[in-house]
UniProtKB/TrEMBL annotation:
This is Carbohydrate binding domain-containing protein. Keywords: Signal. Residues 332-375 have a biased composition (Low complexity). One of its GO terms (biological process) is glucan catabolic process. Gene3D superfamilies: Galactose-binding lectin. Residues 1-24 form the signal peptide. Pfam families: CBM49. GO terms for molecular function: carbohydrate binding. PANTHER family: CARBOHYDRATE BINDING DOMAIN-CONTAINING PROTEIN, ENDO-BETA-1,4-GLUCANASE A. Residues 322-375 are annotated as: Disordered. Residues 216-304 form the Carbohydrate binding domain.
Length: 375
């Protein structure tokens, strides 16, 4: 009996998590699937980062071994590690790493996963209430206990149940914002196997219900690796943006704005209506977005974590019309031309007529049949 008790305690102890461990009490692991970084990149890992400067042989500080990764978080730059052995949430329970905040700490850094070389996952924050950093009990302020700490290593763990099903071929550790922050150090990036029998994959990101702008799921993808070029030593990329209506009512009015979006001029976004204040809306050829349907537009931006966010949405109140839903049909595509720097295509015109059936300003009171949301 005493031996059995010792074995049980030892097993439970192996699942405990704190700032000196690796795994959470809620995450069972079955060993390491792959090491992404441990003094050097793994054999199946490639450096596709655009952060400058960066160093993969930083010798001080280190969490273990001889080296760590260092980079200066600024202007949305990122450490981008491409994986030949992709991460599959159905068999992977977590991704963990250690982070050091140098002399200052509290850097604003996010983590994203990529598929087909494009960031597609939600943002995992390294600060605030939703931080993936394990709470540090030695920090008196609860609000700061899950931030990157100054002068010490803290453990960050990403629960792969918070990833949509699929194959993720890369991980990006990126600056959030344009400000130049204190240098950050990263070490011991590991991918952990799932205990499939006791802890099967659960898609925690699957929406059970939604409200307002949360029902519009936005996905930004690079159009093609050939649709990129350099101008004045700045790299540009063509993107396709998909907005899917996951509500059970049709969208009649949709307004949105760029989150991180760096176009050269107004012609670098198309199949949108141009509204006041830098907002965009549905073009004349898209009258309604029915439940489950997608609205698609294109854009060109400086290469980076391009994003858009919904600022206002109105849903149809007449549910009977939903039975006759039809796919969204776009009018003829705008003409294209080849840029003078490197071969690619981009539209040369934009919609010049604002939609008359859609408001260019937001109502000050909430209509009974409309849903107002904040940016």
């Amino acid at each position: 009996m005493k031996l059995l008790l010792i074995l049980i305690i030892g097993f439970l102890g192996s699942l405990l998590i704190n700032n000196y461990g690796v795994l959470s009490t809620e995450i069972c692991t079955n060993g390491i699937d792959q090491v992404i970084y441990d003094d050097q990149l793994g054999y199946t890992v490639s450096d596709w980062s655009w952060a400058k400067p960066r160093n993969f042989t930083n010798f001080k500080p280190v969490h273990s071994g001889s080296y760590s990764i260092s980079f200066v978080p600024k202007t949305y730059e990122a450490i981008y590690l491409n994986l030949q052995n992709p991460i599959d949430p159905s068999i992977i329970s977590s991704v963990s790493f250690w982070v050091h905040g140098n002399k200052v700490g509290n850097q604003k850094v996010i983590v994203r996963f990529t598929s087909n070389k494009v960031a597609v996952s939600r943002d995992f924050f390294l600060w605030g209430d939703e931080s993936i950093i394990l709470s540090d009990p030695s920090v008196s302020s609860k609000a700061l206990s899950k931030n990157i700490q100054a002068g010490k290593w803290v453990n960050a763990v990403i629960n792969c149940d918070k990833l949509e099903p699929g194959q993720y071929d890369g991980i990006q550790i990126a600056a959030s914002g344009e400000d130049v922050q204190e240098m950050v150090f990263i070490d011991d990036i590991e991918v952990n196997k799932r205990c499939i029998s006791t802890n099967p994959y659960r898609n925690l990101m699957k929406p059970v219900s939604c409200d307002g702008h949360d029902c519009i799921v936005i996905n930004v993808t690079e159009t093609s690796s050939q649709m990129r070029w350099f101008a004045n030593e700045i790299e540009y990329q063509k993107y396709t943006v998909t907005m899917k209506n996951t509500n059970n009512a049709a969208v009649e009015v949709l307004e949105f704005t760029g989150g991180w979006f760096k176009p050269r001029n107004s012609s670098d976004i198309w199949n949108v209506a141009f509204l006041e204040g830098g907002y965009y809306g549905l073009p004349d050829n898209v009258k309604v977005i029915y439940p489950g349907q997608e609205y698609i537009f294109g854009c060109v931006s400086i290469k980076g974590p391009v994003s858009f966010k919904v600022s206002y949405v109105e849903y149809e109140n007449d549910k009977d019309r939903l039975t006759n839903s039809k796919p969204i049909e776009s009018n003829s595509k705008p003409p294209v031309k080849t840029p003078t720097v490197k071969p690619t295509v981009k539209p040369t015109i934009k919609p010049t007529i604002k939609p008359t059936s859609k408001p260019t300003t937001k109502p000050t009171t909430k209509p009974t049949t409309k849903t107002l949301v904040s940016a």
